Structure formats: structure tokens, C-alpha cells
Amino acid sequence: MTEKKREGFAPPALGGSSLLVVFAVLALTVFALLSLSTVRADVRLGDATEKMVSSYYAADVKAQEILAKLRTGAPLPEDVEFEATISDYPDHSETIFSYSIPISDTQELQVEVLVEPDGSYQVRRWQAAAVGDWTFDDSLDLWDGDILF
Question: Does residue 36 carry a pLDDT above 60?
Fold first, then answer.
């Protein structure tokens, strides 16, 4: 009988490379999910910005239309509240019109226009301002330095 020479057979070392491939696939999956969540957040932010910008410019157009009516003396719309202050100076009188156009639930476009008797005007205020009540929250209980046992 011929004796077979047994050579030492070692299986290929797949443990380290398999572990590296699994880690790489896992890392790529995590990065893909993070990218997806970032894209979704960017889309939501973009939609909110588009809505806010279009609301602002719609209010701006309405305020411009009212300003044009003030300048020409046309009848003013009844759905907008106006506050008119007439001041009589010794040399001339002027009228200050104040009105606001809602932009959203939390903002409005506030306008103040000075109209002279000769028809000239000066915009004194054209500003988006926050509306609603704001309350200061001072309920934070801070440590006053006393050690309690």
C-alpha cells in the first residue's frame, strides 16, 4: 500500500474579509438611510419656505394695491382695517395711514404711509411682524447653590 502523504490542508481565511464586507455593507446602509432622512427634511423645509415666501408676496401685493388706492384717492377695501391719523401743522396737514395684512397665523405685514395734501407720500413702515401673545417662561428651576441632604 502506498501511503498517501497527507499535506496540511488549511481552508482559505475568509473570516476577516467576510467581516470587513459585512461592516462595509452595514456602513453603506446606514449612510443611505441618513441621506434619505436628510433629503426628506430638506423637502419639508423647502415646502415650508415656499409656502411662507408665497404668502409674504401675496400679502405684499395686497398692501401695494392698497397703497395705490391711497395715492389715487380711490375707495379703500372694507376687509382691511385702517387707522388714519391726521396732523395739522401750522404750514400744512398730513395724514398717516396704518394698516396690516395677514401673512400667516403668526405674522402680518404692517404698513404705515404718510400722505401729504399735495398727493406725495412716504412709506414709513413696511415690515413683517410677529402677531400673537408671547409669554416669558421663567419656570426653569435652577440650583441656587445650597446643598440639601
Answer: yes
